[in-house]
Specification:
The complex is a heterodimer of chains A (about 260) and B (about 250). Helices cover about 75% and strands about 0% of the residues of chain A. Chain A has helices at about 1-35, 45-85, 90-120, 125-145, 150-170, 180-185, 190-200, 220-250. Chain A is built from eight helices and no strands. With about 250 residues, chain B is of the alpha/beta class. Chain B is built from seven helices and eleven strands. In chain B, helix 2 packs across helix 3 (about 105-115). Chain B is globular, with a radius of gyration of 19 Å. The interface between A and B is medium-sized, with 26 and 28 residues. The structure holds adenosine-5'-triphosphate and magnesium ion. Magnesium ion binds near residues 39, 40, 76, 154 and 155 of chain B.
Chain lengths: ~260, ~250
């Protein structure tokens, strides 16, 4: 407990400015994106869908870069600390607290912007959805930051790849079938679109007579399932990231005791 | 502490082979050898940062493994958070190392180490804005403040001027003797050899694999190689006039 507060303290003494900068940039980028796609949003189906898609992808990208670059740059001395004075569990818990705090602030900013531009009503549902999308992609960034050990360049291309996959398999550009349908289960933006599409009640903007799109089924149970999927995804990504880190720490510690 | 490395490979490149070194408790040991000869690799094996075939025992007689948690390792390239200032870095390291210490005590303690390694002038500067030698000193202070029984330092005086380098090495050796700590240091500066009790010389054999050509008291090294000074010893060793036979003994070719 004591060590956790030391870690959080330590983070904010050196990174308070970075933290604020992230929040500021988040607000700026999101305002820009939402203004760009606001026309006809919450009036026609197509425009609303485009707006939600832009929102969702922006959130995924922002969440992803919250963590990815930061952890990659920390990696070297972090591993050194984890070997010596800093227990892994302490670091993981304090990191989760810090990242949740960051994501909480970003989600609040997002909802404020949404209220300002679109006067949305069910902002609590929006808040939870936005929070979970950000958190889930944050954890994806956390995972990618530790996946590649050698150079920043490799990590950068990996990150670009991850973002492209998120865009393509979000379920908006085409309806994935077969193998791709299975893959979309592990895609943050897909579950994000499901959740935010039904929170915004996207189907109600369909012209009369059109069949409902099941992906945005407007039902509280459906929304909760999508939220749960995002949460599970975040937990899995986090666990995998920690496992990679743990493996990195422990595998070099082993040595075989051979006979003289 | 006794380190035995049967072999240490990177891929198919055998870097170290048949290395067996005793580091007596409370003694200062200097490790020298050619650049790229495997000194850093030896240290990393010692502190458990890399896998190798072999073991690290508490002493030569018992078969008890040495607990690596007792080793403080100062790496060749300083590994500190570049965003933190020197005082922050040392302060938080103190807090994490000694959870029972109060905040004021920890600050006092960190300041103590800043003074000791002549960092007072730059204590509020970020690590990334320090010179190479200042970074190195910050890293030494960062490692030393944990007060562990074994100190392993890779190229401790690289980037330091000879006066400062000598004073830090003299200081460390004095601490080792006074507080009965085991000190293992890599250095390319042969002038400081007189402060150390023991010396380990690594040299490549005909395949380029690193082997220990000498491991013993500093006093006896010149006699062993029949050389007039330590530089001559290094020349003898690097000219590969030495080769190990099967009994692990050195022999002039
Ligand atoms: N991580 C690694 N992967 C592959 N090869 C390595 C690795 N680290 C070191 N080597 C190789 O092992 C050999 C010994 O390297 P080492 O760093 O131990 O040398 P050194 O004696 O410390 O040299 P210097 O005095 O220049 O620091 C070198 O040939 C190097 O190429
Ligand atoms: Mg080296």
């Amino acid at each position: 407990m004591n060590k956790i507060s030391i870690c959080i303290n330590r983070y904010f003494t050196t990174n308070l400015w970075t933290f604020m900068k992230k929040l500021f940039l988040h607000g700026l980028v999101l305002t820009f994106v939402l203004y760009a796609v606001q026309e006809d949003a919450f009036e026609s189906f197509g425009a609303t869908k485009t707006m939600l898609f832009a929102l969702c992808i922006t959130l995924v990208v922002i969440g992803f870069f919250n963590a990815a670059t930061e952890f990659h740059s920390q990696r070297e001395y972090l591993v050194f600390d984890l070997r010596t004075v800093l227990p892994l569990s302490v670091w993981v818990i304090s990191t989760l607290i810090i990242q949740s705090l960051l994501v909480f602030c970003q989600a609040s900013i997002t909802v404020v912007i949404l209220i300002k531009i679109f006067s949305i009503k069910n902002y609590f549902q929006y808040f939870i959805t936005v929070f979970l999308i950000l958190f889930s992609s944050d954890m994806l960034g956390f995972l990618c930051g530790f996946l590649i050990t050698s150079s920043l360049n490799t990590t950068m291309s990996l990150m670009a790849g991850a973002i492209i996959i998120q865009v393509v398999l979000s379920g908006v550009l085409f309806t994935p079938t077969g193998l791709f349908e299975k893959i979309t289960k592990a895609i943050v933006s897909y579950h994000g679109m499901c959740a935010i599409g039904s929170v915004a009640d996207l189907n109600s903007y369909l012209p009369a007579g059109y069949p409902l799109e099941m992906m945005y089924y407007p039902d509280l149970d459906y929304i909760i399932t999508a939220w749960a999927s995002l949460l599970v995804l975040a937990a899995l990504e986090c666990a995998l990231g920690v496992a990679i880190l743990y493996f990195n720490l422990s595998c070099t510690e082993k040595y075989s005791l051979t006979k003289e | 502490m006794k380190l035995y490395i049967q072999s240490k490979k990177y891929g198919s490149n055998v870097v170290l082979k048949d290395v067996s070194i005793e580091f007596p408790e409370g003694s200062a040991t200097l490790v020298i050898g050619a650049s790229g000869g495997g000194k850093s690799t030896l240290m990393k094996s010692l502190v458990g940062l890399t896998k190798f075939k072999g073991y690290l025992l508490k002493d030569g007689n018992s078969r008890v493994r040495f607990n690596r948690k007792n080793i403080c390792y100062i790496s060749q390239q300083p590994l500190l958070n570049p965003k933190e200032t020197v005082i922050q870095c040392l302060y938080y390291q103190t807090l994490l190392s000694f959870p029972n210490m109060s905040k004021t005590e920890a600050l006092q303690y960190a300041k103590c180490f800043i003074q000791r390694f002549a960092l007072s002038k730059v204590e509020n500067q970020r690590i990334r804005s320090l010179s190479g030698g200042q970074q190195k000193r910050a890293a030494i202070a960062h490692g030393m403040l944990r007060n562990l029984p074994v100190i392993v330092a890779d190229e401790i005086d690289s980037g330091l001027d000879c006066v400062l380098g000598e004073s830090i090495i003299r200081d460390l050796c004095r601490i080792a003797h006074q507080e009965h700590k085991t000190l293992v240091v890599i250095s390319h500066n042969l002038d400081n050899i007189r402060f150390f009790d023991n010396i380990v010389i690594l040299a490549g054999d005909e395949h380029g694999t690193g082997r220990v050509v000498y491991s013993g008291p500093t006093k006896a090294v010149l006699k062993h190689f029949e050389a007039k000074d330590i530089k001559e010893v290094m020349h003898i060793v690097s000219n590969k006039r030495y080769r190990q036979n099967t009994q692990d003994k050195e022999e002039v070719l």
